[in-house]
Amino acid sequence: MLNFKNDNRGVIKWIFLILIAIIVLSYFGFDLRAIVESDRTQNNLGYVWGIGVTVWNEYLSQPILYFWHNIFIDLLWESFIENMERIKAGQPTTIEDLSPALMEI
After folding, report:
1. Do residues 35 and 41 make contact, with C-beta atoms less than 8 angstroms apart?
2. 80/53 Cα distance (integer angstroms)
3. What is the DSSP string of 37-76?
């Protein structure tokens, strides 16, 4: 039998840890608004954002968009939708049509 892990607990755990971190920082007198709004933080965030945009535009966008459009959408998503419509209509799926010998085993 398949055992599926509940991944929602991981998200809730991260939210809970972030809230605890904010409370602890506040307890020790850190002003998060002042930290985030400071010129140094804004310059650092702008620098990191610029690097991220450059990496996306120069290296990642073409392979990821190729995978998204040509593999995921064309091959996987359209087949998934077609088979879901067949199941909804009470018809056999594409796999059942193409491999009738497997259904007899």
Report:
1. yes
2. 33
3. HSHHHHHHHHHHHHHHHHHIIIIIHHHHHHIIIIIIIIII
C-alpha 18/C-alpha 76 separation (Å) is 36
Residue in this structure with the two tokens 């259904």, named with its chain if needed: 103
What is the amino acid identity at position 78? E
Structure tokens at 71: 């593999």
52: Cα separation from own chain's centroid: 17
Distance CA 1, CA 51 (A): 46
Structure confidence by residue, pLDDT tens digits, 59-104 = 999 999 999 999 999 889 988 999 999 999 999 888 888 876 655 5
CA–CA distance, 96 with 20 (Å, rounded to integer): 52
